[in-house]
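User: Can you recover a sequence for this backbone? Please restate the input before giving your answer.

Assistant: Of course. Working from this structure:
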């Protein structure tokens, strides 16, 4: 596995242009902390390219893409980076594959699959997104229709990413300026210092763009998927824990200060990711009653 140093974009710095990304070369970032200390008021994040993810019921049908010495990890700015500060580090291990979804899903259907772990080696808690917001106006397939109903934490958005890639993400998008007051949020988990989390995110193939209304939310452009894409990435939204958070129902809101995306190195897409036939039945459960 190759360690890739990451910095959560915008933490303690001026906001990036929405959709912009920061790339960190693996061979540079793999230096020791003494020689590659993060800049003041930025997050020190580490990414390891995983061969497998924990707790997966996916049957791998392709060779996983492992980052080489020229691999890059990606971070993207959130809506308002003011005040975000992670004094130590997080260890992000995103295992990205093309896989069959496993028990309970339509047999033989393949998905872009991310089995990830995240460990908090710092001294402050962090919010970690779980799935996507429910009930939003959506362009394209609704995320809740793409996974088993009892696994909402696997829901994802599918959008265009940097360098012509596909981006599969779990996040709440920031709202456009001038919108009426609203409170949009994605469910989240609190990652305490010294603890770890894991998850499994899915995007059905053939890939179709899925995102909340660009008339309300700041969605990366172009809004369609790049037809000549050969790579994809998985991105997970993180945020500092605000003082007014309800610990019984943690969420990342559309305007949570310091929210940002932690993204995997790019992985290879199947050549027919956009052209393979759509499934005959629903994307989840093989028939009435499931199973």
């Amino acid at each position: 596995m190759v360690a890739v140093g990451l910095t959560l974009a915008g933490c303690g710095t001026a906001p990036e242009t929405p959709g912009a990304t920061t790339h960190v070369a693996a061979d540079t970032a793999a230096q020791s902390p003494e020689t590659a200390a993060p800049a003041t008021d930025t997050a020190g994040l580490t990414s390891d390219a995983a061969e497998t993810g924990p707790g997966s019921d996916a049957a791998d049908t392709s060779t996983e893409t492992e980052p080489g010495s020229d691999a890059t990890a990606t971070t993207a700015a959130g809506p308002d980076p003011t005040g975000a500060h992670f004094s130590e580090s997080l260890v992000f291990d995103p295992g990205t594959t093309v896989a069959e979804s496993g028990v309970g899903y339509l047999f033989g259907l393949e998905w872009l699959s991310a089995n990830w772990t995240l460990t908090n080696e710092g001294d402050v808690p962090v919010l970690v997104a779980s799935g996507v917001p429910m009930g939003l106006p959506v362009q394209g397939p609704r995320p809740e229709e793409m996974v088993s109903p009892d696994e909402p934490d696997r829901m994802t958005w599918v959008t265009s990413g940097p360098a012509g890639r596909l981006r599969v993400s779990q996040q709440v998008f920031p709202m456009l300026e001038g919108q009426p007051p609203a409170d949009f949020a994605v469910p989240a988990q609190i990652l305490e210092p010294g603890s770890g989390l894991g998850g499994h995110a899915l995007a059905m193939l053939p890939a179709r763009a899925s995102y909340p209304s660009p008339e309300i939310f700041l969605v990366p452009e172009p809004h369609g998927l790049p037809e000549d894409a050969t790579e994809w990435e998985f991105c997970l939204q993180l945020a500092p824990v605000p003082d007014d958070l309800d610990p019984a129902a943690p969420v990342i809101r559309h305007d949570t200060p310091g929210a940002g995306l932690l993204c995997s190195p790019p992985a290879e897409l199947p050549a027919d990711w956009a052209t393979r036939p759509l499934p005959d039945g629903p994307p989840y459960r093989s028939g009435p009653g499931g199973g």
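That completes the design. Confidence is low (pLDDT under 50) at residues 1-88, 284-291.
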